[in-house]
Write a structure and sequence with these properties.
The chain is α/β, with parallel strands linked by helices. The chain is built from six helices and five strands; from the N terminus they run βαβαβαβαβαα. Pathway: Cofactor biosynthesis; coenzyme A biosynthesis; CoA from (R)-pantothenate: step 4/5.
Length: about 160
């Protein structure tokens, strides 16, 4: 059975931790859709189009991965794309409560879609897009945490 999974997020910006979760998901599923949420409530640094473009650059070597933007309910997006699984990343125990609530809400909205939690490699467990943006804004080097194209885009945004 060929299973399609969706890995949703704001990806503002996509980090090496996100890419690691995608890598792990590609080992489990035939097709992985990286679903970039519009999410204007978060006041993203990058536009939806920029976040999609950066994700496509970072993930270009994964043949079974596609990147799409979305502005709807996640379960509706999953159904439209015939996805059976939602992949969510967990960095620390502190992520679990929020992710558990999301998973249960999504299950209530559509019981046919399962949520699977994956953890990144240990060296990426402390990385978050918010921290990366803060480091870049203060002139710090983010090369260990993001793809070079993302680092360059952050430099242009913060200088």
């Amino acid at each position: 059975m060929k299973i399609t999974a969706i890995y949703p997020g704001t990806f503002d910006p996509i980090t090496n931790g996100h890419a690691d979760i995608v890598k792990r998901a590609t080992q489990l599923f035939a097709h992985v859709i990286v679903a970039v949420a519009a999410n204007p409530k978060k006041s993203p640094t990058f536009t939806l189009e920029q976040r999609i473009e950066l994700a496509q650059i970072v993930l270009k070597d994964f043949n079974q991965v596609t990147v799409q933007g979305f502005e709807s309910l996640l379960v509706d997006f999953a159904k439209q794309n015939q996805a059976q699984v939602i992949v969510r990343g967990l960095r620390a125990v502190s992520d679990f409560e929020y992710e558990f609530q999301l998973a249960n809400m999504n299950r209530t909205l559509n019981s046919e879609i399962e949520t699977l939690f994956l953890t990144p490699i240990t060296q990426y467990t402390y990385i978050s897009s918010s921290l990366i943006k803060e480091i870049a804004a203060l002139g710090g080097w983010v090369g260990d945490f993001v793809h070079p194209a993302v680092g360059a885009a952050l430099m242009r945004k913060t200088r």
